[in-house]
Amino acid sequence: MNRVLSVWALCLAVAVSVFTESLVYGGDRTLAGASDGAHAWFVVERTRIGGTEWVLLHHATAMNCDCVREAITLPRAPEAMSALRGTLWIVLSPDRAGARRDVYSVTAVRNPATGAFYSDPPTRMAIHPSLSGDGELRGIAAFDDRLLALRSGAAGATLEELASRGWAAVTDAPATAGLRLTSLAGQPALVDPAGATTVRAADGHWASSGSAAVGSGFMQLISGAARGAALVRLDGGKRAIDYLGASGALRLATFEAPDRAFTVLGLGDGFAMFVPTGEGGAAMQRIDSVGGTVGPLAVMGAQPSDATAWVCLAAVVVGSAGAASGALLRRSWRLKSAAAERR
């Protein structure tokens, strides 16, 4: 009987948590997130006695499960995020009027012994020169080991680059009025309200992506998508994922929007939708990249350690010890033979 009551209590707690989360995250808010295709990062809220805290969660395709790890706790909600090659860049909103925007980065590293991921730096984020707190931050985009930011103010929109000496205006930037900065298939991209895109090439020049504008309902480009893709708002609270093409957009999938904040990110060859479940937890829903099939919503557990990695490590250690013992034994035999010959 006690076991049954415990199960019912757990179910009730989960239901209350999900209901509370729907109130906190309700409406049309977007969950802060970024992806590079192999690593997906997103931020959920968690209530503590001292108030609300923001938890950065990390999921990697190499985890091979619907699981997640808590990377770090943020002091404030992020204003913008961008991911590239396992590194996440974060710009936090100013904590007060006149303050600057804090800029951080953190890299996901896989432990070769356990197969589990951890953060580098392990207990904090790398600190970078802060960005001006003036104006509206209209997006960031990572490239190489640098970061671009688009900030609008009284003088118009300014594209800035974070290099070794701090932030500096990009002198050869294209017109940025009314545009936002994001990433398109791993490259910095400027996008207009209709979804027309201009991308930065490896040589630093900006040119049209060759894709037609998404058109009515365009919300945002999907971070981490292997090819250009957009999230589109439809009537009746539905959302769609469209592939971008030269002659127009090709619809991949249509789904009901959750009743709380969510984010759709590119993951591997496909996509995944992440939604908070309460008190720092999350659930994910995979979306196939070919047929557009939307999978079931799965609550994400903690990332497991790969036990087979320990077996491999043990084999390597034993093998190394055996090789060393063999080498010492052969050396001993050679010394004994040489001594016998001298006699």
Q: What is the total number of structural domains?
A: 2
Q: How large is the radius of gyration? A: 25 Å
Which shape, going by the Cα principal axes? globular
Report the portion of residues in β strands.
over 45%
Q: Mind describing the biggest β-sheet?
A: 5 strands, mixed
CATH class of the largest domain: Mainly Beta
Order of secondary-structure elements: HEEEEEEEEEEEEEEEEEEEEEEEEEEH
Structural class assignment: alpha+beta
Main sheet: which strands, in order across? 1-2-3-4-26
**Average predicted confidence as pLDDT:** 84
| Sequence stretches where pLDDT stays below 50 over 5 or more residues | 1-27, 307-324, 335-343
Query: If helices are DSSP runs of H or I spanning 4 or more residues, what is the number of helices?
Result: 2
CATH architecture of the largest domain: 6 Propeller
CATH fold naming of the largest domain: Neuraminidase
Query: Tally of extended strands?
Result: 26
Short description:
The protein contains two helices and 26 strands. Strand 23 (270-278) and strand 24 (281-287) form a beta hairpin. It is globular and about 50 Å long.
